[in-house]
Amino acid sequence: MEGPSVATAEITRQSVVPELDLDDLDSVLGLHIGTVNTLFVSRLEKRLDPLSVTPKQVAILWLVNANPGVKQTDLSRFFQIERPTVHQFVRQLIKNGFLINEPSKLDRRAGGLWLTDEGREVLTKSRQAIAEHEEQLTTALTAREKSELFRILMKLYLSAPAKD
Amino acid sequence: MEGPSVATAEITRQSVVPELDLDDLDSVLGLHIGTVNTLFVSRLEKRLDPLSVTPKQVAILWLVNANPGVKQTDLSRFFQIERPTVHQFVRQLIKNGFLINEPSKLDRRAGGLWLTDEGREVLTKSRQAIAEHEEQLTTALTAREKSELFRILMKLYLSAPAKD
DNA sequence: TATTGTTATACTCTATAACTATA
DNA sequence: TATAGTTATAGAGTATAACAATA
């Protein structure tokens, strides 16, 4: 799996820039998470560009589609981002005609979000783009590595001590 | 390890917001990488705030310290970010008195970067802050999970198809 | 008082385009 | 022509503070 029957070759970022002394910077987990995140986000942004949506906007469309009438507060809780941050995505999506905001009749503070026909079309195409993108970036991983990665990331996320 | 001797409980993001239909959004790897990245970055930013540096600025200081006289181009290659992006961090670090830029005598196009005494102090304190931060966020992981995470992230990074 | 949404503002990280100076 | 650095500008994603409307 890892090559010939010698000691497993350790592949590190050192091999990418051999002339630099990394001084153990590559033992910082956050660095690698950040690098891989940038890789995923920037590639996906390019794929989604023709559809005039960003990765986070698609995630919002995705959940609104599956939960018609959902409130911004619910999205804020799911993504663990602040309400004004959610609102910014929602505002852009409404401006671009992918989403509408219908005030709730039960609680007039809250709005309910729905996709437009155009929003549904964009979501369908975006899901296809995401599927191709994820397939492309994870072909090197075995099925077991993929599921381990999901499991470990989830464990990190769920075990994080509360803010403050 | 995972609880009583029943089928391993699957812990997902669904359990965080039970009332939402996720419609398989949680099968998108990029979402989890992004969430964990935000977790790491935002926590570290708060820890570094008293030192007046950001996570990326510390990474720059770290490499300049280990490679006195390094060029911005080398940093650009290591971090896989564009030269103007590196320059922005460098400019801020110089402005804050943590870095100096001494033009090379061999190639007057290039500058060489060095830490100031204050930069060295901030780096030392930042490394301590990062060590505590990483320890705090990864305590839930076993040693094997940690090394698997490093290995899989590195594999993703190194196997990524070239841009375009 | 508490919740929902909104507006204004700002910060971090990233990019592209276009420029200067040097090799 | 190619490389190193710089400047200007922009965009994605995030936050906090303060406010209005509603419950």
TrEMBL record, chains A, B:
Q: Which UniProt keywords apply?
A: DNA-binding
Query: Cytoplasm as a keyword?
Result: no
Q: Which Gene3D superfamilies match?
A: Winged helix-like DNA-binding domain superfamily/Winged helix DNA-binding domain (1.10.10.10)
Which GO terms of the molecular function aspect are on file? Answer: DNA binding; DNA-binding transcription factor activity
Q: What is this protein called?
A: DNA-binding MarR family transcriptional regulator
Q: Which residues form the HTH marR-type domain?
A: 22-158
Pfam families, sorted = MarR (PF01047)
Q: Give the GO biological process terms.
A: response to stress
Keyword Translocase annotated = no
In terms of PANTHER family, this protein maps to: HTH-TYPE TRANSCRIPTIONAL REPRESSOR YETL (PTHR33164:SF43), TRANSCRIPTIONAL REGULATOR, MARR FAMILY (PTHR33164)
